[in-house]
Amino acid sequence: MNIFQLAGVLLFQVAGQAEPVDDDTRVMEIFISGDACISIYTHLCPSDNTRPMALDILWQMWQRGRSISKRDWTLLRVAVVACVNDVYYGRLFFGDPETQQVLWDCDVRPSDATFLALKAKAPIYVKKAVWENCSTSLRHSSTWATVNYIEGQRESQRRAGMERRGSLAGLGQQGQGLPESLPAIRLLMREMEVAVREEDYAAAARIRDHPWMRLAEDINMHRSIGYYEQADKLMADLSRLIEAHESAVGREYEARLTAQHAARAALDELLRRQDTQDVASGSGGGNSAASAQQQRGQPPHGEEVQQQNESTKRD
Predict the structure, then answer these.
(1) With bands split at pLDDT 50, 70 and 90, how would you rate the model's confidence at 93?
(2) In 3D, which of 26, 33, 27 has the Cα closest to residue 1?
(3) 74 located within any domain
(4) Which residue has the higher pLDDT, 124 or 3?
(5) Cα angle at 251 between 249 and 255, to 5 degrees?
(6) What does the alpha-carbon distance between residue 83 and residue 127 come to, in Å, rounded to a whole number?
(7) Measured CA distances, 215 to 2, 37, 188, 231, 238 (Å)
(8) Which three-class secondary structure state does DSSP give residue 10?
(9) How far is it, in rounded angstroms, from Cα 228 to Cα 206?
(10) What is the average pLDDT across 153-167?
(11) Do residues 133 and 160 share a domain?
(12) Is residue 312 part of a domain?
């Protein structure tokens, strides 16, 4: 299952059909996504690190109700009762487990009903009219077409992948074709781990939805089903995207440094000119005062002293 797409398909068939299932077996497909898809998957493939989903909380509350009154809160069965505009409708039937008497029922999505039926080990029914209108032979189902396509391509892709891997020198080179070998992807993965550990799910979701992370998930998905050639093409696209981004960031940083150096040089030149002007003004102050005295008809200070001495001599 692709954890980023959160989608799957429920494939129903009549109970007690002869085995093995072949192309002519009649089935009914219900496509699911979101929390219901995750809940069903984690129920079938349990994990110790799985956090409770909305349906898990509903199940716990329901078990509390059963501990109070099994007669009222035992799930007897679930059913798919209608299909309108390709949308399926289901119902939950609760009642007495001893007499199988239904005491009450409610509407439900078939995906949620399937999860609850799996948890409660209750049977799943499909209304006859719905089955007749919506079921099809397995050979004509989208699920079977997908399986056949994957199986038809997997062997050739696996052989191509083995040949490609065989040409690599060592284990270190084998890892170079994985998204996790790129430092940018490893950094995003570490950031998402930290966000999940700190329960910052908004940040974790943003990192999960990053275009590089989505492309990395597609690469791993193609590898898991044997599409090595397509995975290599996507890996090349991812490497080019990251390289282009890092080059743009590097050019922007270099331009910013150049602008800072130019601004600093201009400021230094302005300060140097200002200092030069201040020095010139200070050295020319005396000459300016003498010139001003001459313009007013007053002799310079030295001449005035000399005139006083001559006057004293005449006296």
Answers:
(1) very high
(2) 33
(3) yes
(4) 124
(5) 115
(6) 10
(7) 12, 22, 13, 10, 7
(8) strand
(9) 28
(10) 58
(11) no
(12) no
